[in-house]
Structures are given as C-alpha cells and as structure tokens.
Write a structure and sequence with these properties.
185 residues, Immunoglobulin-like, 4-stranded antiparallel β-sheet, 16 strands, LFA3 protein, Ig-like_dom_sf, glycoprotein
Length: 185
C-alpha cells in the first residue's frame, strides 16, 4: 500500500471502535499515531505503552488493531499505523470521521402495506442519511427476515398476527409494529 493512501472510516460517539487491521506477519514493533502524535507503541516482547489522552481509552492487540473505548468527538483525525516485520517497515493510514448518532436522530420506521391478488406486501421505510439494516419479525413466527420488504401469501395471513419492522444503525435500534388485519381490504 502506497504512502498517503487513506481509508476513511466512520466511528460513532459513545461506542467502542476498532480499526480494521489484520496483520498476519510476525511483528517486531508497532506504532500507532494520531495526527502525527504517538498514541501507542509495542516493541515485542514487552507490553504495549500508551501515550496522550487516548492512553487510558485504547487497547492495542497483537494483530496490530487498535481499539478506542467510548469514542469522543475529539478522537476524529488521521491515524497512522507503522509496523516492522523482520524485513521492512509497513504503513497504513486511516481517517476516522465521527458521527454523533444520538438516538433521537434515528427515526421510528414507517410501515406501509398493500395487497395484490395473492399476497400481502409490507414495506418499511425510514428517513435516514446512512444505510440501515432492516429486519422483519412476525408475532407468529420465530424466523426473522432481513429485508426492507416482506411478502406474505394471502392464504397464509393470520389476522391475529402483528408484524414488526426493526431498523438498526450500528448499535442503535428503532422499531414499528402493525397488525396484519389493518392491511386487509
């Protein structure tokens, strides 16, 4: 990877964050820097040492990944990982962008339903700027459906059933529920 290459990654305030690093070589030394300042250093076989305000909130793992606990707004910045295997130096750069996803900004999803000749179609929407994970749950069925839309053959519709749409972004969830009887003409 060329110097100056930067991978942009998003962290969410208040959550734990691990840089997506997986080093397979045998490492002799690792240094993590943030905005050119050293954050953590590990010279094998000693224990890692930590520096600066991230010192008490970061954990450096053997595979080179750095975890920051309880992300704060100021953790945003350019992070640089430099490590040496027994042969040469390697470098990876990351730009950590902070998203303050307060629970309030994740809306409650909306459910729309329509029927055709032979099926009932449920659609779940949420007005949010990032891509969401959608899951459907039916009260009479333990199976969860990972999709924004759910189709049920009309012959299988039980009017006592409730359908729940769950949207998830990172660790945060919101849900809405509808009774299938509301959807029938």
């Amino acid at each position: 990877i060329a110097h100056g290459y930067q991978k942009e990654i998003v962290g969410i305030m208040g959550e734990n964050f691990t840089f997506p690093v997986q080093i397979d070589q045998k490492i002799v030394e690792i240094i993590w820097k943030k905005n050119k300042h050293k954050v953590a250093e590990w010279e094998y076989p000693n224990k890692p040492t930590y520096f600066g305000h991230l010192g008490n909130r970061s954990v450096l793992m053997e595979n080179g990944s750095l975890t920051i606990v309880n992300l704060e707004k100021d953790d945003a910045g350019i992070y640089e990982l430099v490590y040496w295997d027994s042969v040469k130096e390697h470098q990876l750069n990351f730009k950590l962008v902070m998203l303050s996803l307060l629970l309030d900004s994740l809306p409650k999803p909306e459910i729309n339903c329509s029927t055709s000749d032979d099926e009932l179609v449920l659609n779940c929407t949420a007005n949010f700027q990032a891509s969401l994970n959608y899951t459907w749950k039916l009260s009479n069925n333990p199976h969860r459906y990972q999709n924004q839309e759910l189709s049920i053959p009309l012959k299988n519709v039980d009017i006592t059933t409730n359908a729940t749409c769950i949207i998830k972004y990172s660790q945060t969830e919101r849900s809405a529920e509808i009774s299938l009887i509301q959807c029938l003409p």
